[in-house]
Structures are given as structure tokens and as C-alpha cells.
## 1
Amino acid sequence: MRKIFLIAITIAFPVTSLAQITYPSQRTITKTDRFDFRPGGTVMITGAPNGSIEVMGSTANEIEITARIELRAENESDLDALAALTGFVTDESPIRTVIMTVGSHNKFGEKKLPKNFAKRLMLAPFSVNYVVKVPKYIDIEIDGGKGDLTIRGVEGSIRANFLDSNARVEIVSGTAVLALGKGSADIWFSAKGWRGRSANIQVGEGDMTVRLPTTLSADIDALVLRSGGIENEFPDLKPRDRKVAFTERSMSAKAGVGGGTLKFSVGQGKLRIEPLRAPL
């Protein structure tokens, strides 16, 4: 009986303690980095469980990273410990750069922690908000948790996954794959003329707005899986198969003379397709 009693106490104690933890102290710090990177490569970004990611293409042959880190803890001493360990690391090569967030969610990148580091700090909440400037002729791969996503001026392939996001993404060329668990997606295809092969944009729960240049030639598949519907304001979209009419939740269409395949799907929400109106 004694052993059973001790086990029950051991299990119950952390649960009670967690319920009483508060984080009255807050701190915002900024960490930066800048290094050369030539066009034609790939930049991979792994974000924090909470935090935004903004990527901007530029004419400079370099990557510039600005990370605004927001920390919360019980006291200033704990904030000092967290500030020293939370941030990002890079893995650099001539053709690929990886930017990875390190924090309590991934055991601070498996760093060897100081001997006096309190294990309770592994539960302290934090967020990292990135602004990353990259050469415009590169490919981008992003994995994020909950936070805004913005991609502009990148003239390469794009792949991005977020659990929960309000995303604004410009698609210029290459292949684009974007998946959001929930949130909203505002997608526009460059006014310069889309030069890509395909795009596949998915939102599980939320709304999607797609803005297309009126000169576009592409095959378009639009689908709402459960509740919601499609609102089409793009002129001159025609069924690819004249025997398959558009419905409130499904469109198999052709813009112009057809071409690359654009797929847009929403699990639950509205899907709007409209002409691109500059400026955005």
C-alpha cells in the first residue's frame, strides 16, 4: 500500500503544480544574422510553435535574418536563462541553408544545458517572429506552427506548411505548395505573369482568396469539401469539359488557352477567385 500511495503522490504533484504556474515576467529580445548566399539554392525555415514568418525576395546575394523573440517566465532570472538559449541556428552550404528555431519545444536544439538549468523552464511559453530577406531567385521551404505567414518577391518554388495561419503569399514562378490546417490564405499570382508549372493550395478550415492576372492561361481545379462554397468573380472561366458544369463547391475550369494546373481546395469555408487588382 505504501508503494501505491507514493506513486499516486508522484503523479498528482506535477499536475497540481502545472495548474498553479503563472508567468508574470515578460521580455522581448532580437537576434540577427547575415551571410552570403547566391541565387539558385534552397532556404529552409523551421519556425517556432508560435510566431510569424515573413520572407522577402531581394536583389542582394545574401540572407538576412531578424528574429523577434518574446519570452515569458516566473521571474527575471528565469528570463535570463531562457534568453541565452532560445533563438535560431543555421546550417549553411553553397546550395542550401537551413534556419531552425531552437527553444523548449525541441530541447533547445539538443544543446547541453547548464547544470543549474531548471526543468520547469521547459514549460515556459515563447514565440519567435521572423523577417527573412533572401535572394529572389531561390526556392523556399517553410514549416510553422501558429502565426502569420508572408512571402513576397520570391521567384522560385515555394512549399509551406502551417498549423494555423493567416497567410499572404505571392506566387511568381516555379511550383507552389501551401497547406494550412486552419486560418486564411490570400494568394495572388504575379502581375508580371505567372511562369510556374503547378500550384496546390489547401486550407483545412477557413477562407481562401485567390487573385489571378487577367492574362492567365491555366487549368484550374477549385473544390470545397464540406461546408461553404465557391465565389467566382474571374472573367471568362470556362469548363474544361463542356458536359461538366460548375457547382457551388466544385469547378474544373480553363483560363485562357489552358496550361499549368492550379489546384485550390478548402475543407470548410469560402473559396473566392477574383482578378488581380494592383496594388496589393
Note: The two ends are 70 Å apart (CA to CA).
## 2
Amino acid sequence: MNTSPINALIIGANGNLGRPLVKKLQEVFPNTIATSSSNTKEILHRIMDIDLIVNVANRYYPMPTPSQMLEMKKSIIGLAELIQEASRKTQARVIHFSTYFQYAPEDLAPWSDYSDFKNSATSIYKSISSRFGIPTTEIVLYDNFGGERKDKIFDLMLDAAIKQNTFNATFGESQINLTHISDIVEGVVGLAKELVQADLGSSRAYQLKSSNTFSLRELDALISDSLEVATNVNWGALRYRDKEVFKMWDSSEVPSSWVAKKSLVDYILDEKSNSHKRSY
């Protein structure tokens, strides 16, 4: 059991999850260094006294060009290889993140090239435990809300409803699971505290998934009821993608000590209030 001050490194510190996670980790582990993925190689080669590596970096392009595909592969798999070598040398425990698309049902797998890259990286992280006996924790994420990014479908639907704009959508049967970014941060920090105290052993996997699973039509109804307005969604204006989530799946167990607390309705009302303040 580790009772010394923990030296932690968080990679991907400037991202939507990275920024709030850095602040919280530094409260728990004051000796936390934050870096971007581009500086990771230099940092890992220079710092040898490290107990915990948290990799929240995530390079993703929804419709990648060939050069962007290579960039994703290098970023996701190459970074995993760097972390594996650093963990071997320093015995640092590792927290890494997966997407629920990696755990799609067999008839939908593989979901994409991106999920394949993530699968390869996950195998590399798991080998840190199997080859070197160093504990690792995989955290599977679903969709989120409440962060700095406002370009995902829930926030776009909400913004259109607040501004009473028309929103073009598919037929709306696909599903989405939403967890507030602060709840995710709390879950990660809790698992980090467990990991640094864990005995040597195998890798563990958890999902940070709330009970907020909706079809897009259900989500639109929640927005409409919360704002007490009629929304202007043009259902069927867009085609479904080649693969859609029509029934949400689980990927692993939820940590026993974690529960998502942030209310989706409260967030919707807060965004309405904030939007009105910005308009003045």
C-alpha cells in the first residue's frame, strides 16, 4: 500500500474532460503534472519518479481523411506504447479511457477504424498488467454534457430549442446516454484513489454511465417539457448513419462507490438562463 505523496501525470490536460480533471486531481494529488499529448514523449523520458499516469487524450475525427486517419492511429496507439514503456520503467499505475463503441454488439462490430485503434490501445494498456504486474484501470465513457464543448447533438438540440431555431434530425429512434462532466471527473478521481492503493495485480474495467438514456425523440420531449416551449425539430431531414445505436448497451460494471448526481433538467434550465444573460 502506497502511503507516500503521489506523483501523478495527466495527459490530455487541455481537452473537454482534461481541464476539469486536472483541477480535481491536483486537489487530491498536489504533485500532479499536466501536459498535452504532443509533449508526452518528452515528459515521459524526463520524469522517472511517477506513481500514476492518467491518459485522457483522445484524437478523433468523425470523417477522417487518410492523413487524419494516420494521425489518429499514431496518437492513440503510439501514445499507448509510450505509456506502456514508461510504466514498465517507473512502475506507474495507469488509468486509460475507452469508448463504448469498442463494446458494440457483435453485429455492429467493429464500429469504426477509430474504435479499432482504441481496441489496439486497450490491449496495450492491459498488457501492462499481464506482463509487468502493474495495476491498470480502464474507464469506459459514453456521451457527456456540461463541459466546455457544446458541439454534440444534445447541446445543439438544446441551443436550437432555446433560440427557437429549426433543427434537422434523423427519424429520432437512435439512443444516447448522457453523463455530466463533473460526475465523470468525480468517478475518475475516486478510481484513481483506489488504484494508487491497490496491490499488484490485474487490470480492472469500469463504465461511467448514468441512467440518462434517451432516444433523440425522448430527449427532444424532455427539452420541450423543461423549457415549456414547442421545439422545431425537422424529423427525417437527415439520413441515419451506416451504424446507429438503437439500443444502448453496457460495457462493464459501474463503480460501486459512484453515482451520477447531476440533473439533466437542471442543466437544461441553467443553459436557458445563461443564454438569456449572454443576449443582453
Note: The radius of gyration is 20 Å.
## 3
Amino acid sequence: MLGVAVNEAATFNSSVNEIGTLFNGTAAEVDALKGKIQSYGSDSVFSLESITKSTYDMVSATGDSVGAVDALAVAEKAAIVGSTDLNTSVDALTTIVNSYGLELTDSTDVMGAFIVAVQNGKTTLPELAASIGQVSSIAAASKVPFDDLLAAVSALTAGGIKTSEAMTTMKSLLTELASPSDELVAALGGVTLESGGLKGVMEQLGTATGGSFVEMNKLFGSIEATKAAVGLSTTAVTTFDAALKGMGDKATVVSDNFALMESNLDLVTQNMQNNLTIA
């Protein structure tokens, strides 16, 4: 048992040193990071191996070695609430942070938006994490907030569209809105993503086409864009509204739901194992 603990401690130290190479950390900076990870790990429900791997990914993706551990704590709660692993949660977080030029201090809002999307749609955190990168940069460039984007994807999945397909349709929709046809410009009647937001644009298109798939299809050059527009302006509008409203709770939804789950026996057991390794 002692030999196993020694080996695990050595592996932990080596992993932290590897993280230090990402930011050319001095011995003092790497030691400080090690202390943060140890402190976090003593309360974590994930293995130290998962924690160091996720910290590496977080620092590698964002360049922020100072805020990484605090952000990891938020990602952990979201992972537990979203029934996934820590690395997947970190992947979702860093994709949005990088696409929108955010800071890791925005982690609570970002992960809260993901959980609200899961609550309102037929999707999961792993599915969202795997495909959000298809559209997040385009959405950011189009001035569509990440919570509006996730609410839209959530609504489309609730209507039966698979998560990856919903991302594709949103990408097509935003691309065509960025370079609209003459027919689309006329239908929009001066409403833009910047002036009316995604919700406003969808409402305008729904009114202009009377909710008709045939009429909507005349405005777009791809069936993917049409599917998203029809969904968000007609068939999925109720879910879209609910998801947008739910985003108002994104700052607290992760912690509130985590509190309901933290007494889980499996989580407590892993926490005990971490403390034995750190000791």
C-alpha cells in the first residue's frame, strides 16, 4: 500500500511539472500550482490523474495557469451535474472561453449555460462539448451571446434534431445571416442580430414567412439554414423561449444542482482516495 502511494505521489509531481512547461513556470510558480491542485484535489470527487490531465488541458487551451484550478472546480460541479467526466466539462468550457474571448473567471456563467441547455433540450453535456466548436466562433463573430446560442441548440434538439446536426444547422443559419440574399434582407425588414438579437431575427422571419417552410426555404441557400430558421421561429419557439428564460439562472444552476448530488457515495469514496494519495 505504501509503495502504491509513493508511486502515485511521484506521478502526481511529474504531471504538475509537465503543466509547468506550458507557461515556462519557475520552480516557485510550479510549486504554488502544485499546492493549489493538492488543496483542490483533497475536496474533489475526481481522481488526481483526471485532475492533473484536466488542469493541463485548461492551461494549454487558455494560457491561464493562475485561474485554472478555480475554473476546474466549476467544471467539476458541472461535470457531476451533467453526468460526465472532468475532461469533457473542461473541453466545453475552454471552447466557449476561447471562441468568445472570455476569461476563466467567466466559468460559472459558461458552465451554467451548458446545464440550462441540457435541462431544456434532448441533449447531454458530452454531446454539446463534442460539437459546440462547429459554431461557437461563428456565433461569437456574429455577436450572438453563448447563452443564446446554447438556448437555440437546446430548442432544436428538443424538437428531435440530434445535437451535432443542430450545431450544423446553426452554423449554416448564422453564415447565411452574415451574408444574406436579397430575399432574406427584405424579409428581415431591417432587423439584424445586433439590433434584435437571435430571438428578434427569428420572430421577424416567422412573421415574414407565416411560419411556412416553403416560404422560409426561399430565403436561404441551404436546407440546413432553413431547418434552423423554421425551428426557432415556429416549431421550437416555446422551448427556445424557455431556454432563454432559464439562462437567467446560469450563475446559480450548477451549484444548486450540485448540492443535491454531493452526498453520493461514489463521489465521497473518490474524495477519500485522493486524500490518501495526497497525504
Note: Residues 1-5 have pLDDT under 50 and may be disordered.
## 4
Amino acid sequence: MEDLPFIPSLRRRGLRGGYKFTTLPIGRECPLSPCGRGLGEGYFCINTLMTDIKQPIVEIRNLSKSYRRGIQVIPVLENINFDIPEGEFLALMGPSGSGKSTLLNLIAGIDKTDTGTVMVGGLDITSMTETELARWRAANVGFIFQFYNLIPVLTAFENVELPLLLTWLSRKERREHVEMVLQMVGLADRMSHYPSQLSGGQQQRVAIARAIVTDPTLLVADEPTGDLDRVSAEEILELMARLNQEFGKTIIMVTHDPHAAERAHIIRKLEKGILNAHS
């Protein structure tokens, strides 16, 4: 029987993001010590062992990307090289047209590089076929969009359940997962509501629940607060910070907003397709 992909009782206990997870099926004895007793510095056990060792989850090498407009070649990204440690919250900033969203799409496997490699979790996604990429995205990437991208004729519950329909989970297991993440984002009492019956902030929380319900390796967010008022934006940023700090989720966020970027642990800036080495 598969473990639940998310354990609500998991807490950091003072550790900062960048965990390395080793999931143990419920009932299996911890190989280091039973129930976490006697573990060394930086370890504990709640059916999951965590260590405060930051390994790169994303490794980008010599990445370049351009688009064609007729016979004109328009460079978008030039020779990008950087790593994103596992469990980090990274913000990509830069003016419009600097290549932020293009870089996010390349990391998420939505677009293809011209040259260079993108490694995620040790896998070279630039060498995958379209079919392999589709499967990889479904299992490893949670998307959070500026305009929510909820299906208006589906309830909050049904919108969140959609990614799970591609899994082998039973109907009962899907319901448990959906109810759990909607409770996490504070919408347990709005499961039967349609998007038109929810505020902008509530719709974005449904979108976040949909993004995390499969327990993805990465959460990628493209201007997640761009369509929200200041109060709702603050609630969304607080929720994203909690997902990172308490649950160790790796988050990559594109934003124009310096206030939003302050929530990230790392800020990288793009200027005309070139990554600022000092950001």
C-alpha cells in the first residue's frame, strides 16, 4: 500500500529548508534507530527521516534559448548556469522580456532548450521525448499560475482531484488526498464551491492545493500574486512560505514584486537573458 504523499504532522523542528527525504512505509523500523530515538544531530523520524543537507535538485548548465520570428532569431536566454538546492525557495526577478518565464518553463519541462542541459532530481529532462516529459511533469511538477487556471464548471474539490485521475489511486484514496490538501490551504469548508463562488485569493489557494496534491518534486509559480490585492497576496505568500519551511517543498517563483521576492531564500535576477552572477 502506498504511503500518503503528504504528511500533515511533519514539522521542521528548527531545521531550515533543504531536506533530504527517505520515506519509510508505516510500521517499518527506522534503520538508524526506532522512532527517532538516539538519532544523531539534525535527524528525527515521523515515518520520514530528514537531514539538513542541501543537495542540488535543479542543475542548469550552458543553457541557451532563442525564438524565431520569420527569418529573425531572437535570443532569450544566453549561457545560463546555476543550481537550485533541494528544499529552497528561489525567486526569479527581472524586467519584462528578460527571460524569467522562459527559464521557468524550461525547468518545468514545458519548453525545450536550444543548447545546454537541465537536470532535475538527477534526470536530464532535456534528453526526454515529449511523451516522457509529459509523464515526468505529471509526477514531478506542480504549477501555480497568475490567473489560477481553474476549470469553471468543476468544484474546488474536483479541480484539485484532476491530477490524481492520472494515478492508480482509488476513489477513496483520492478523496483523502484532496480533503487533506484543501484543509492545508484553509478551504475545507469550500470544497463544493465553484470558482465563480470564490474570491481571487481563495481561487489561488485551490490552485496551490491542486499543485501539491501529487506531492511534486518542484513547485513552479509564475507571478502567483500578480492578480491579487495586497491582503490576498500576503496570504498566498504566507502559504507558499509554509509549504517551503514546514514541508520542505522546493519552490521556484517568477515575480516582478520585490515584496514577494523577499519571501524567498535566494533571489536570482535576469537582465536581457543573462543571469546576474551577483544576485
Note: Residues 230-247 form the longest helix (18 residues).
